[in-house]
Structure formats: structure tokens, C-alpha cells
Amino acid sequence: MSVTITGWVVILVASFLALTRPNAILPLALFFVPFSATSVINISAVSYGLSPAVFLLIVFCGIQAVRGQFLMPIRLSGNHLTGILALVALAAYVIVDLGAGGLLGGLSLFQITQSAFLLFGIGTAVLVSILIHSDKYFLMSIKALLWSGVFVSFWGMVQAVCFYSGIPYPADVFNNSISDYADMFDQRSLNVIRIASVAVEPSFMAFSLLGIFAFSATVVTLRGASASRLQIAAALLSGLTILASTSTTGYFGLAVFGVLLFTRKPIPVLVVGLLTLAAFVIMLAMLPEFQQGVAAMTVNKTASGSFTHRWSTVIEGFEQFAERPWFGWGWGFSTSYSMVTIVLANLGIAGALLMLMAIVMALLGSLLARSQSSSEYEQERVHAVAAEIAFLVSLASCCISGFKYVTLDLWFLWALLLGLQTRLAHAPSSSGISDRDKPAITFSSVSS
């Protein structure tokens, strides 16, 4: 076990914040969510790198537990609470299903570790959703999300510049994880670098940026001239980085985002879409290498070895589901590269229905919260729409490139979607003080 150079910096910063501003550790953890190739501590015995986001969340939870914060009553809207209960039911099913599978045929270490990752993600979504609805965390967390998109895009540009200029890329800074998958960040397609930035590989980076791009671009589109410079920068830089990444996941996610936003703002989306398409075509025309790289990752993708492998896992997932259709094989048995088949094969129809229920409850709760919220919460309503679109884009991407439950990107968007429901439900009182700023005494049954 060894601490990386970046790990020492993260540990020092976390220690300083623990003594001065412990509440800032949570937004910092959210900033590091896309850094899947970065490790604080490398554990060579199991080839695992503890990411900054997970490390900081553990530190944050430890501090809050010592301070007794988890024992304080909390105030949640009815829809928020329903969404949490749906996730808790899913987690309980995963545990029971895994235990039953172990009794019937035994469990592998891989199944146990993958189940732990899934349960940690669900737990993170629940915890962050409860915390993020309060004013002291909400704005800091949104800014952390946007700044993360800006930095990941910037580091992706650094990777590209190093490749094309021949300058050695400083991989030890943010691509230092000992994980078996972390060395896939350095991919080339012909003479084009496939940008991975701080992620383990290009599709993971594209997936992380898609959520940030969809959120920030929706906010910018809906708010127009009142959008902040940070929101505009996050949308512009993350969008351009996804376009330059040559990631099929990224291009598919952008298409899904365009369709979803078109239903709300058809004219602006059409104009921006045409301008983006024109810029993309110009890049293809002026840069033959880029043209070849994009072709290799899109129209010629079906001829690649990676596509053949991923598609074979999808077929295998359906076959595994057919063998145990009702309750599945237990989480971690199937490693299918599609959220649909991996959930069906591992959890069966019963577990898939629970997963679907949790997703629907989160989205439906957000729709109800927006429709019934006070007009004074226009900013929250915009954020809720942005969270819904980002969540749907991420889910769609998981269906074609694998359920990325090990990283926390989707779980944070899930938490944001739930947390906003309580913010929208607690309208200002006659005293001008928001309910969410008052000392909470119980769960709220406020309709959202």
C-alpha cells in the first residue's frame, strides 16, 4: 500500500479543511468524482486505487459522525423520502439476492467487491441527497460540479497538447491509479489521441462530462443572458472536449441531450446544433487524422475488437438472464456492457423492476416538485430540469456503454435530482425565512 504524490496533497487539504471548514469537504469530494484514474492510496495486493472522491467522502462521513451530525433530525419532502425508500429497497434486494445466490452456488470475491461498489454508490446517492438540499451544501456542490467540468476539460486539452507536441504527458499527476483499467487512458486511434483526461479511459471521461455538460448547457439554455460565466464555461468546454474525445459514448450522449432539450427549447437547440455540426464538419475537413479517428470510433466501430467484445457480453447477459429470469445470479456475476442486460442478468426481473421503480420515482418526484413549487424558486426549477436531463442522458449512455456504478457520477446526479425535490417543496414562510433554513425536527410530509 502506498500513498501517491497527488494523494499526499489531497490528504493535506482534507486535514486542513477538517480543522477549518469541514463542510467544504463534501463539495471537494464531488469535484473529484470524474477523477476515476486518480488514486490517493494504491493498494497493490488487490490492484485497487482509492480515488479522491471516495477518500474524501469517507473523511467527511467520519467527521460528521464524530460531530454527531447524523443523529440530528432531518426534514425531507414526501417525494424525496419516497425516492430514498426506493433506493433503500433496491439496496436491500441486492444484499438478499446476493446472500441467496451464495447459499445456492457460492460467491466469488469479484461479486462481493462489485456488490460493495454498487451499495456504496446507492448509499452515496441517499446521503448526498439529504445533505445537498440545505443551503450550506447546495450552492457549493453545484459550483463544484461546474468547476470539475472545466478542469477535466482543461486537463484533456493538456493531454492532447502533450501528444501532438511531443511533450511527455505527466501521467503521475492524475493518471496514477494502480487499478487494472487505469492504464487505458493512453489510447490512440491512428494518429489521433483519444482524450481520457483524468478518467481511466475515454468513454469514462465522456460519461463524466456528459452529466456536467447536460446540466450546465440546460441551465444556460433556460436562463439565457442571466446564466453565469462559470455555467457558460462549463457547458462550452465540456461540450468541446466530448466532441474532441472521439468517444462513441460521448457522441451518443450528445445526441440524446439534443433530443431532450429540443422538446423544451426547439429554436435555440436547433441553432446551436447546426453551429456545432458546422464546426464539427470543418474540423473533419481540416484535420484528416481527426476524420480517421472519428470514423474508427463511429461508422467503423462495428469492425473493432472492442465492439465485438462488448456486444458479446450483451448477448451473454441475455443468455444468463434467460437461465435465471426472476431473481438473477446476484450482483457481479454478469459484466455485460449494457445497463439493461447487467441488471436483468444479475438481479432478474424482480431486481430490474426495483431499479426501474427507483428511477421513475426520482424523475416523477422531480416533475411533481417543479409543478407544485413556489414561483420564488425559479432557480431551483431550472436546476431541477437540468438535473432531470443530465440524469436521463447518463442513463441512456449506461445502456450502450455499460452501467458505470463503480464511479460516482450517476449517483451524484441521482442525489441532486432527489435533493432538489425538498428544496422546491419548502417554500419561504411569512417571516421570509425558508423552511430549509430552520432547525429541522422531523421528516416533512410536504407534498412536492
TrEMBL record:
The chain crosses the membrane at residues 7-33, 45-66, 78-96, 108-132, 144-167, 204-222, 234-261, 267-287, 343-369, 389-417. Residues 233-336 form the O-antigen ligase-related domain. It is a multi-pass membrane protein. Keywords: Ligase, Membrane, Plasmid, Transmembrane, Transmembrane helix. One of its GO terms (molecular function) is ligase activity. It is found in: Membrane. This is O-antigen ligase family protein. The lineage of its organism: Bacteria, Pseudomonadati, Pseudomonadota, Alphaproteobacteria, Rhodospirillales.
